[in-house]
Amino acid sequence: MRIGVLTSTRADYGIYYSLLRALAADAATDFGLFVFGTHLSEGHGRTVSLIEADGHPIYERVDSMPTNDDAAGIGRAMGKTTSNFAAVWERWEDRLDVVIALGDRYEMFAAVAATVPFGICVAHLHGGETSLGAIDDKFRHALTQMSALHFTATPAYAEKVSHLTGRTHGVHYVGAPSLDGLTELPLLAVAEVRERFGMDFGQPTILVTFHPETVARAKNETYGKELCAALNKLTDRYQVVITMPNADTMGSVLRAQFLALAAENNRVITIESFGKIGYFSAMKHCAFLLGNTSSGIVEAASFGKYAINLGDRQAGRAHSDNLITVPVDAGEIMTAIERVESRGLSYEGKNAYVKDGSAAAEILFILKQEITAKKTTGTVR
């Protein structure tokens, strides 16, 4: 069985972590990654180095980065990505049993769209979800329509995928793969985080990730100012660590604001990428999360952390009781933090994305079944 895995950002690569380990450990499986997007961008930390360090095979590196992050630049990048992947799939169409795609980003959509004329079987992870404040919502559902197999994080999302595709076969509820084996991960101690990243999580620290709202892109400059104003006030009692935005529309505006804040206030630190282990270690040791990243929605609850979710980027997604959603307003942010502090900073409830067992193991088992059926009947079941 030969599997291709599409990865375009540090985020999806982190989510794939347990699945890639399962693929690597399976003697009957040959796999490799098609690496593109911000992985290949020096300005975004060139996170392909994380893949290289982990030793996972890379089938191809594919140029897909926009020349700028305005609407026209993103549109042109989508065209470039589709064109470049058409050449990739021409080389690989008869050499792959399935291609795995994850999530909802525009570059993932473009790469998968290029598979359609070739009839390549695509397995999609994290379909059926909703994020009303981002254009990603449209791309996610389009990815669902272009895929033959589906692995969802909740039963409700499985129902949504079945509704979108008009079928139940090929749709599997497996839970969120990023939650596999969290207690077994070799997370870094505070001293190790300090040595590797130069950050002292021994002091109270807010872990911040804020991406643009790509549906309301004109508001992002104001959002950045409101967030920076709140963070500047908070540094009298917290260290602030900001993981930088992805290559989304208006992302450069937020980047400039975060870098300016860090230059003016030595209690604010920016970083392009922690990597999976580094980021989860930071999550373990921080006081709470702040921003609009999916990690606040999916993983934070499993670390016993509250997440203050800002604005509408994640609007509509299922979440646990650790989430507090407020507008991107400095005053509202300060009030939300007071609420978290009044609760003692420790969340002890359940995580809505946890399913018993290993999502990665279940995905691999199902893929083997489906690929065997495809080879026998010519189609997935």
How would you summarize the topology of this molecule?
Blueprint (H helix, E strand, L loop, with lengths): L1 E6 L2 H6 L1 H9 L4 E6 L12 H7 L3 E4 L9 H22 L5 E5 L3 H8 L8 E4 L10 H11 L2 E4 L2 H11 L5 E3 L16 H8 L7 E5 L10 H15 L4 E5 L7 H14 L3 E4 L3 H11 L2 E4 L2 H5 L8 E4 L12 E4 L3 H13 L16 H19 L4
Parallel strand pairs: 1-2, 1-4, 2-3, 4-5, 5-6, 6-7, 8-9, 8-11, 9-10, 11-12, 12-13
Any overview of this molecule?
The structure is a single chain. 42% of the residues lie in helices and 15% in strands. The strands form two sheets. The chain has a seven-stranded parallel beta sheet with strand order 3-2-1-4-5-6-7, with helices on both faces. Strands 10-9-8-11-12-13 form a six-stranded parallel beta sheet, sandwiched between helices. By secondary structure, the protein is of the alpha/beta class. The chain has 14 helices and 13 strands.
Number of domains: 2
Largest sheet: 7 strands, parallel
* Spatial extent as radius of gyration: 20 Å
CATH class categorisation of the largest domain: Alpha Beta
Q: Uncertain segments of ≥5 residues (pLDDT<50)?
A: none
Q: Could you state the CATH homologous superfamily of the largest domain?
A: Glycogen Phosphorylase B
Q: What is the number of helical segments per DSSP (H or I, 4+ residues)? A: 14
Per CATH, the architecture of the largest domain is: 3-Layer(aba) Sandwich
Helix content: 40-55%
- Tell me the total number of β-strands: 13
What's the arrangement of strands in the largest beta sheet? 3-2-1-4-5-6-7
The overall pLDDT average reads 92
The succession of helices and strands, N to C, reads EHHEHEHEHEHEHEHEHEHEHEHEEHH
Please give the alpha-carbon distance between the first and last residues. Answer: 17 Å
Query: What share of the residues does DSSP label as strand, in percent?
Result: 15-25%
Which structural class fits the helix and strand makeup? alpha/beta
> Tell me, what's the shape?
globular
- What is the third-level CATH name, the topology of the largest domain? Rossmann fold
